Amino acid sequence: QVQLVESGGGLVQPGGSLRLSCAASGFTFSMYGMSWYRQAPGKEREWVANISIAGGRRNYVDSVKERFTISRDNAKNTLYLQMNSLKPEDTAVYYCTRGGEYWGKGTLVTVSS
What we know:
Elements: E1 3-7, E2 10-12, E3 18-25, E4 34-39, E5 46-51, E6 58-60, E7 68-73, E8 78-83, E9 92-98, E10 102-103, E11 107-111
């Protein structure tokens, strides 16, 4: 069965960095585009970034452009989200998804001093 497991979240100070990982299993990872979403407390889940099958095309929500980088390692069946210059408003549970059909359980990122 399809499984997506996020990791790498935690508490970080404003201006800090984190790298999230999403380990995929149960399907041929290299055949699917992948996305990151996030859900802040009291808010709806929002799309953050997506990446094409081979990683050549990447898109970001405006609020994270120039700060976040989505990438993938198809040999390791893993999706990544490098987050730099973090802001308190980036605090959220971050989810990876395959096409909006399969979701991980999320990893919490808290940006606070």
